[in-house]
Amino acid sequence: MTAPDRRLLLVHAHPDDESSQSSATMARYVAEGAQVTLVTCTLGELGEILVPEWTHFSPAELGAHRQEEIRTALAEIGVTDHLYLGGAGRYHDSGMTHDESGRVVAPPERQPNAFWDADLLEAADHLVEVIRSRRPQVVSTYDPFGNYGHPDHVMAHRVAMYACTLASAPAHRPDLGEPWQVERVLWNTHNTARWAEAYAVARERGLELWPEREVDPDDVGPDPDRIVAVIETAPWLEVCRAALASHRSQVNTEDDFWQFYRIMQELPGAGEAYLLAAGRPFPASDVPASDLFAGL
């Protein structure tokens, strides 16, 4: 399969998620001439505002501002095909809180169009139309836990998985386009081994990552044997950093956590890791693969 024939679709919950989790992947395939499509499910209206002079923003104002941030980030990466699920503002950031055990959950008070409360079929059909028009061989989204439990990440996972199934069914909504079978569905995940290495370095440097709780680095990501592909960060490191820094309302690159993130990006073998969720496996001799399209 030549690069221009390759088509990749990524589904993320909020502006900035694409830059913190998939920027190297997108930059690589754009540079190789593949078609890269990003779907963002909300405007991130309830994100934590880190810039003091912007703390007066209402949720609507923050959502508008974050649209500008993601435009800047995607210009750094080179992605030109970007859509909001159902159109900009169709689904509102659900927000998040923690239960008594510290687990991330949806807050009890939510906007009427909060993504967490979306009708799953309706939301999936918005994505079915995108899948059938773009015809990606590979789709990437979060794992069932949304990687860390944010309700919008969990919902993005559910929508993407359901949409991939519906898109291939000839009897389902023919008005949304010709059926299309996605060949491989991936879940982006922590690069477990590199995460543990970076955590050790960060502790040695005295960085305060989660001062309120103890974190076992071995429990942060999946068993490394389950990781089927890793897209190396090193060739795209400056692009990744520029894209992430574009999200100023959400990311303070001088914060200890993002310093830890920089350490992880610089480790030998560092990269964006993926699990196989559905579809054609990677060639056994090539796992972890360095190409999301290997074997297709």
UniProtKB/TrEMBL annotation:
It comes from the Bacteria. This is N-acetyl-1-D-myo-inositol-2-amino-2-deoxy-alpha-D-glucopyranoside deacetylase. SUPFAM superfamilies: LmbE-like (SSF102588). PANTHER family: 1D-MYO-INOSITOL 2-ACETAMIDO-2-DEOXY-ALPHA-D-GLUCOPYRANOSIDE DEACETYLASE, N-ACETYLGLUCOSAMINYL-PHOSPHATIDYLINOSITOL DE-N-ACETYLASE-RELATED. Keywords: Hydrolase, Metal-binding, Zinc. GO terms for molecular function: N-acetylglucosaminylinositol deacetylase activity. The gene is mshB. Pfam families: PIG-L (PF02585). The lineage of its organism: Bacteria, Bacillati, Actinomycetota, Actinomycetes, Propionibacteriales. Its EC number is 3.5.1.103. The keyword Cell division does not apply.
